[in-house]
């Protein structure tokens, strides 16, 4: 089964491209670590790191099975409130509708 969403390489490519002077290099002025994550895998690098040197993210003290269980466990209402109580209440209304690819089906007010 094919995975949905952007690939790790697409994320890295976009990060590298955005660092060019004719793009948005100021976005990276304070960046120490850059991540490209697709929900299953992740790689990391620093500013101006060529794609071939971005390394795979690996957790040392947790198995893939444990990570899968954590990643696919729905948060309780109490956990959601602990994470977001400092935010305006309108933001909390969006939390339960966010899917794993970041889409909500709603437009953010800009």
Automatic annotation (TrEMBL):
GO-annotated biological processes: DNA restriction-modification system
Pfam family, one: HSDR_N
Domain of life of the native organism: Bacteria
Domain Restriction endonuclease type I HsdR N-terminal, chain residue ranges per copy: 4-50
GO molecular function: ATP binding; DNA binding; type I site-specific deoxyribonuclease activity
Protein name: Type I site-specific deoxyribonuclease, HsdR family
